[in-house]
Amino acid sequence: MENREIAKILRETANLLELDGAQIGRYRSYEKSAQVIESLSERIEDIARDPAGDLTALPAIGDRMAEHIQEIVSTGGYKLHRQLLKKYPPTILEVLSLQGLGPKKVAVLWKTFKAGTVSDVENLAREGKLRDLAGFGEKTEQNILKAVEVHKRSAGRFHIHVADGTAALLVDYIERLGDRVESITPAGSLRRGKETIGDLDLLLISENGKAVSEHTLKYPEIDQVLAHGENKVSFRLRNTLQVDVRILDKKNFGAALMYFTGSKEHNIALRGLANKLGYTLNEYGLSTLKGNRIVASRTEEEIYHRLGLHYIEPELRENTGEIEAALKNKLPRLVALNDIRGDLQMHTTASDGKNSIEEMAQAAKRLGYKYIALTEHSKAVTVANGLDEKRALQQIKKIREAQKRTDGIRLLAGMEVDINKDGSLDLDDEVLAQLDVVVCSVHSYMNMESSAMTDRLLRAMANKRLQILAHPTGRLLLRRDPFPFDIQKVLDEAKKRGVVMELNAFPDRLDLKDIHLRMAKERGVKIVISTDAHATTHLEWMPYGVKMARRGWLEKKDVLNTLPLDKMMAELRGNGP
């Protein structure tokens, strides 16, 4: 089992225990263990199965929790988890996932109405039956209905890092066939770098389709086989992700890769262009209308060239102007992962992170970074152990001292400062003035009216200490919609005041999204791509941020943290070190 699957069982157990009225210490132990497991770079199953492995050496894992993890690894489940799902319907886990409905409120709904499905909760909210319950109200009903809509749109979709990790494991398994498989390439929305994925397409070249097909269908994570042939197999995995594996001839691979990568709209536009030029285009190749002779099929590059186009990177294939740009040789030279020189948002054990300053620094150094900013939460985020002024000053001192012990990378003293409801910042100006990097964000009062939220952000940006506006829309993919505000006004203000906008690479966020990034680029607003890492392993999520940047047509010159330290700090609003 993968770490996220084990963590999911523990987190669900925590939610069900809280729903059941368990003491806080009991369910919090499951939450903490789930967080630790998700942040591990190694598979916890390997530790559990290793005779010399010691699960209790991990933070927050005691003897009892180690036993629970061993049970999950050995049986694929957990006795207490199963018992609770006999007491409550399994569908209540979907109710618990609704934004704004924590276990305590779900417990009230279950006790009062026996509401155990999303549909039950939706009907109660629509009928106005929740507003008189203690702790609810009419506004809560409206928020529940919004959360239900998000849930409906999200059903059957997966975060990009989940789909990417699933693809990597499956590719590794198929590659055990050795030279019988020449290459394997993920296609579809994963290759385009979309933030959420509906299903997974894998294209591979092989001359022995039958052997590949039979081997693939023995993959242990398969839950249901949907189709089985020598050229294609389809199945659903235990995590419910559908996978289509297509086995192709080398001579047609480019055409198939193009066909199964591009969005529907991009492909339609390409076919229209092909027809105008006297060709037909499909998954087998680019062919002449007269005589049906294939003129290009082996590579995507040769097909684009035949159509009079410069090569279009996969992330751009959404029919949002890329074909016109390719015809005019005006495609952007997209930013690349190896352009990134530093990471300007991350958290340590001083707030809600899992690793120390030095551990984060060494992990970043291994990634080749030249600088990082350590940015703890400020005091308003009590749930994340946010720092008040006194602790913030202590943390600055600790970062300075850690720098003396750390060579080869610059440690910048930063803070993720909350933007209060009135637009003021959550730390005194005297403290902010001592920071190298001031990242500001909204974590509260996210249901404000659009005009009020816009004014809140504009007032915050008027503060000269705010340098970077972090995860600006507040969205949580598959869980929470962006909060409403006038993005154009905010970007215009950012340009006016020299505020940098963050592209948060945390896979739950990927905020700003591609459309907003293009709007920022058009205005000349600089972007910083940061991971918002809460563990050393989260630093490895930078590729997802870069993918989103590429979808937003960003070039190296548009991204602040592609610059050397001195130039990057000179571009930051305010005084740098």
Question: Can you offer a commentary on this structure?
Answer:
This protein has 577 residues and is an alpha/beta fold. The protein folds into 4 domains: 1-87, DNA polymerase, domain 1; 158-248, Beta Polymerase, domain 2 (2-Layer Sandwich), CATH 3.30.460.10; 253-327, Beta Polymerase, domain 3 (2-Layer Sandwich); 337-571, TIM Barrel. Helix content is 43%, strand content 14%. It is built from 24 helices and 17 strands. The strands form 4 sheets. The chain has a 7-stranded parallel β-sheet with strand order 11-12-13-14-15-16-17. It has a 5-stranded mixed β-sheet with strand order 2-4-7-6-5, with helices on both faces. It has a 3-stranded antiparallel β-sheet with strand order 8-9-10. Helix 1 (3-19) packs across helix 5 (79-87) and helix 13 packs across helix 15. The longest helix is centred in the N-terminal third of the chain and has 17 residues, at 3-19.
